[in-house]
C-alpha cells in the first residue's frame, strides 16, 4: 500500500476521544477530521467540553479512551507539538517584559535557530501590527494589544496547526477585522486553524466547517451551508388582503407583525411564487426582504433540539 503524502494526512484526526473526571464525562466520544488548510470552528456553550478537547489534542492531559493524531503523530508526541501554535483564552505575560523579549523566550522554547529568531519576530510583529510597540512594556498594553501579542506567539515558527481560543474576544471591530485577515492568510499557507469562539458572527465569516458540541458530544458538524441547512426566510410588507397568514403558511411557518409577515424555510424560487400568489389574490406587496438563517439562530436551534431529545 502506498504511503500517503504529508498533505494527505489530516492536520487533526480524532476517533471516539473521551475524557472522564470521576463520574463526570467531560468529553464523550469525539470523532472528527480536520484537513490541512482548513479553518475549523469548534462551538458550544460553556461546559460543553470544548476546552477539554483542546487540552487533549495538545497533549496537556491524557484521554480516558479513544485516540487522536496531530499531523499524523499520536497526540502528546513532541514531534507534532513543535509544529503547533496555540493561543489560550486566558494567558498573561510578565508585565516587565517587552513583546520582543516575550517572543525571544518563545523562540527558544520551540527551538527556532538563533540566526532566524530576529527575522521571525519581525514578521509576526508586523502581522499583528505591534512593530511600533515592540520595545514597550507589556504592562502598558491594553487587553486587545496583549491579545495581539498572544496571536504573534502562536504564529512563531510557521506552525502547521494553530489552535485559537477566543482570539477576538478582547478586540475592537478593527482588531477583529485584522485577526480575520491573519486567519485567512494562515489558511492560504496551508495551515489548519482550529477556532474556538463564542462570537458566532466571527465564526460565520471565516470558518470552512464547524462542529457544535454539547455535554461532551458533537451534535452537529459540517460546512456552514450544511449546518444552516439552507435555512432561509423572507420578510414581506403586504396590505389589501385578509387571511394573509393562512395563505402564506403554504410556504412555511409564518410570523406576523402588523403589515409585516415573515415566512421561514423559503428558498429563492419560493419567494417568487409567494409574490406571484399575493398579487394574484389582489394584495399589495410593498417590500420583499429575503433573509438567511444566521449561525447564531441555527446554533440555538440545534442546542434546543439536543436538549429536547435528551429530555425525551
Question: Can you tell me about this structure?
Answer:
The protein is an alpha/beta fold. The protein has two domains: 220 residues, Rossmann fold (3-Layer(aba) Sandwich), CATH 3.40.50.300; 61 residues, 2-Layer Sandwich (Alpha-Beta Plaits), CATH 3.30.70. The chain contains eleven helices and 14 strands. A six-stranded mixed sheet has the order 6-7-8-3-9-10. The chain has a four-stranded antiparallel sheet with strand order 2-1-4-5. A hairpin with a 2-residue loop joins β9 and β10. α3 crosses α4 and α4 crosses α5. The longest helix has 17 residues.
What is the structure about, briefly put?
This protein has 312 residues and is of the alpha/beta class. 36% of the residues lie in helices and 28% in strands.
What are the SSEs and their pairings?
Elements: E1 12-21, E2 24-34, E3 39-43, H1 50-57, E4 65-70, E5 73-74, H2 78-81, E6 84-87, H3 99-109, H4 114-127, H5 143-155, E7 161-165, H6 173-188, E8 192-196, H7 200-206, E9 209-214, E10 217-223, H8 224-228, E11 232-239, H9 244-248, E12 254-257, E13 260-264, H10 268-280, E14 284-292, H11 295-311
Parallel strand pairs: 3-8, 3-9, 6-7, 7-8
Antiparallel strand pairs: 1-2, 1-4, 4-5, 9-10, 11-13, 11-14, 12-13
Helix pairs in contact: 3-4, 4-5
Rg value: 24 Å
Q: SSE string, helix = H, strand = E?
A: EEEHEEHEHHHEHEHEEHEHEEHEH
Low-confidence stretches: none
Number of domains: 2
Q: Find the count of extended strands (DSSP E, 2+ residues).
A: 14
Mean pLDDT: 85
CATH topology of the largest domain, which one? Rossmann fold
Derived structural class: alpha/beta
Percent in helix: 25-40%
Number of helices: 11
| Level-2 CATH architecture of the largest domain | 3-Layer(aba) Sandwich
Head-to-tail CA distance between termini: 47 Å
Proportion of strand residues: 25-35%
Shape: elongated
Widest beta sheet: strand line-up: 6-7-8-3-9-10
Major beta-sheet overview: 6 strands, mixed
CATH C-level class of the largest domain? Alpha Beta
CATH superfamily of the largest domain: P-loop containing nucleotide triphosphate hydrolases
Amino acid at each position: 500500500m502506498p504511503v500517503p503524502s504529508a498533505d494527505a494526512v489530516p492536520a487533526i484526526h480524532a476517533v471516539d476521544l473521551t475524557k472522564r473526571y470521576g463520574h463526570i464525562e467531560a468529553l464523550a466520544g469525539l470523532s472528527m477530521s480536520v484537513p490541512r488548510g482548513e479553518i475549523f470552528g469548534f462551538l458550544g456553550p460553556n461546559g460543553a467540553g470544548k476546552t477539554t478537547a483542546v487540552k487533549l489534542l495538545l497533549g496537556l492531559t491524557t484521554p480516558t479512551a479513544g485516540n487522536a493524531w496531530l499531523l499524523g503523530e499520536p497526540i502528546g508526541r513532541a514531534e507534532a507539538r513543535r509544529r503547533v501554535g496555540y493561543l489560550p483564552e486566558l494567558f498573561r505575560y510578565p508585565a516587565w517584559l517587552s513583546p520582543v523579549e516575550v517572543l525571544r523566550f518563545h523562540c527558544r522554547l520551540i527551538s527556532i535557530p538563533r540566526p532566524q529568531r530576529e527575522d521571525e519576530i519581525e514578521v509576526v510583529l508586523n502581522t499583528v501590527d505591534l512593530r511600533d510597540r515592540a520595545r514597550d512594556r507589556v504592562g502598558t498594553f491594553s487587553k486587545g494589544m496583549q491579545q495581539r501579542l498572544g496571536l504573534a506567539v502562536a504564529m512563531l515558527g510557521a506552525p502547521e496547526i494553530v489552535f485559537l481560543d477566543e482570539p477576538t474576544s478582547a478586540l475592537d471591530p478593527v482588531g477583529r477585522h485584522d485577526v480575520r485577515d491573519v486567519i485567512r492568510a494562515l489558511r492560504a499557507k496551508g495551515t489548519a486553524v482550529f477556532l474556538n469562539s463564542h462570537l458566532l458572527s466571527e465564526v460565520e465569516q471565516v470558518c470552512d466547517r464547524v462542529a457544535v458540541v454539547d455535554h461532551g458530544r458533537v451534535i452537529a458538524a459540517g460546512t456552514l451551508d450544511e449546518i444552516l441547512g439552507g435555512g432561509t426566510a423572507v420578510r414581506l410588507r403586504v396590505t389589501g388582503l385578509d387571511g394573509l397568514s393562512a395563505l402564506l403558511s403554504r410556504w412555511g411557518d409564518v410570523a406576523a407583525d402588523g403589515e409585516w409577515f415573515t415566512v421561514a424555510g423559503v428558498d429563492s424560487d419560493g419567494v417568487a411564487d409567494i409574490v406571484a400568489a399575493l398579487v394574484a389574490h389582489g394584495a399589495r406587496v410593498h417590500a420583499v426582504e429575503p433573509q438567511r438563517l444566521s449561525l447564531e439562530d441555527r446554533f440555538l436551534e440545534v442546542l434546543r433540539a439536543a436538549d429536547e431529545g435528551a429530555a425525551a
